[in-house]
């Protein structure tokens, strides 16, 4: 499903880089811009509530109106730079605790109580990225000053297909976002790290891999095994970057055939990330109810155990682990994705500097 948005966008450089451009290293560490990212589960912010988060190395304020409409503002009052997240929720706007300056959901200053008629009023002075909600998660577009308009967004089919049931699992890991992404672009680790898990004990522990291009990204897949273990992954770039993979499931695991995962990794800052894993199966009607019951009562705990194995391994990596590696053929997917994001980071840094 392709999504368009006509939400107003504030074309401001975020406060973290006010007065200077981000370097390629900073962009590479905290996420390339001009695309959509998953931000958090929708349940993080109830109607009438607000919550401070950090994403892409910047502090943000999420607040939801009583009618359910969600807004994302940079957590910085345009007056003196105080945190808006310390202020008051006023329905469709937020009042800064420091001097009462009121900011609407689109970043416009609506009132300066201490000086009515002040020239701040009526101006969009706070960054307010567009947001949408899908499959239990909030997605936001993070652009730079040259690309304020949201990129065209095509959501992953398993999250929008009425014949597919997708269940979101979210966690925050103390590791850079690229390592979390690279972990999924490395199918071979499933046969070793997850060998004792309930679904990844089968198949050969030796394999050859290839990269296969697609219109929306590329597959990294085993050439000599399919439908046995974690045998392939597809990286898709459809306005938001996401990964798709399947793991074979026995009939005893209930209806729906193979078990699929849609994954996304979002930078919190250079050393932390949020990981989103939607577990899905193609089921409808009573089979959907059966699958959801089995998942919640039996399978979910096992899947969290698998994620804990990933988290433990990745959080144990030194920050500069990628500076002292000796890679081999199984790492083609990792090399490909690193080169892709590094090239984008350098391109965006050069555009900011005008070079």
From TrEMBL:
Residue ranges constituting the Rieske domain according to the UniProt record: 36-140
**Presence of keyword Acetylation:** no
Alphabetically sorted, this entry's keywords are: 2Fe-2S, Iron, Iron-sulfur, Metal-binding, Oxidoreductase
Q: Where is the signal peptide?
A: none
One Pfam assignment: VanA_C
What SUPFAM superfamilies does the entry give? Bet v1-like, ISP domain
In terms of InterPro entries, this protein maps to:
Cholesterol_7-desaturase, Rieske_2Fe-2S, Rieske_2Fe-2S_sf, VanA_C_cat
Name of the protein: Rieske 2Fe-2S domain-containing protein
Q: Which organism was this protein described from? A: Streptomyces monticola
């Amino acid at each position: 499903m392709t999504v368009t948005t006509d939400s107003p966008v504030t074309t401001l450089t975020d406060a973290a880089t006010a007065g200077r451009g981000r370097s390629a290293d900073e962009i590479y560490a905290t996420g390339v811009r001009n695309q959509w990212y998953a931000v958090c589960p929708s349940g993080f912010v109830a109607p009438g509530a607000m919550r401070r988060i950090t994403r892409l190395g910047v502090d943000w304020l999420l607040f939801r109106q009583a009618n359910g409409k969600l807004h994302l503002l940079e957590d910085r009052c345009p007056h003196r730079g105080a945190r808006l997240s310390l202020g008051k929720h006023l329905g469709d706007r937020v009042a800064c605790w420091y001097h009462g300056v009121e900011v609407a959901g689109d970043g416009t200053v609506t009132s300066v109580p201490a000086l009515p008629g002040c020239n701040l009023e009526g101006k969009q002075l706070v960054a307010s990225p567009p947001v949408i909600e899908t499959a239990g998660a909030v997605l936001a577009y993070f652009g730079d000053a040259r690309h304020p308009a949201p990129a065209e967004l095509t959501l992953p089919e398993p999250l929008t297909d009425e014949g597919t049931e997708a269940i979101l699992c979210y966690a925050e890991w103390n590791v850079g976002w690229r390592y979390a992404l690279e972990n999924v672009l490395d199918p071979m680790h499933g046969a070793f790290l997850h060998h004792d898990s309930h679904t990844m004990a089968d198949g050969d522990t030796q394999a050859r891999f290839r990269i296969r291009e697609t219109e929306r990204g590329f597959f990294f897949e085993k050439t000599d095994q399919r439908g046995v273990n974690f045998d392939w992954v597809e990286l898709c770039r459809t306005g938001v970057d996401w990964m798709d993979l399947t793991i074979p499931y026995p009939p005893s695991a209930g209806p729906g055939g193979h078990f699929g995962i849609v994954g996304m990794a979002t930078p919190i800052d250079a050393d932390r990330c949020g990981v989103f894993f939607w577990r899905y199966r193609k089921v409808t009607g009573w089979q959907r109810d059966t699958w959801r019951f089995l998942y919640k009562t039996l399978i979910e705990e096992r899947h969290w155990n698998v994620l804990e194995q990933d988290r433990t391994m990745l959080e144990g990596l030194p920050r500069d682990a990628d500076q002292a590696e000796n890679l081999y053929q199984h790492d083609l997917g990792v090399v490909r994705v690193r080169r892709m994001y590094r090239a984008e980071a350098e391109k965006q840094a050069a555009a900011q500097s005008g070079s």
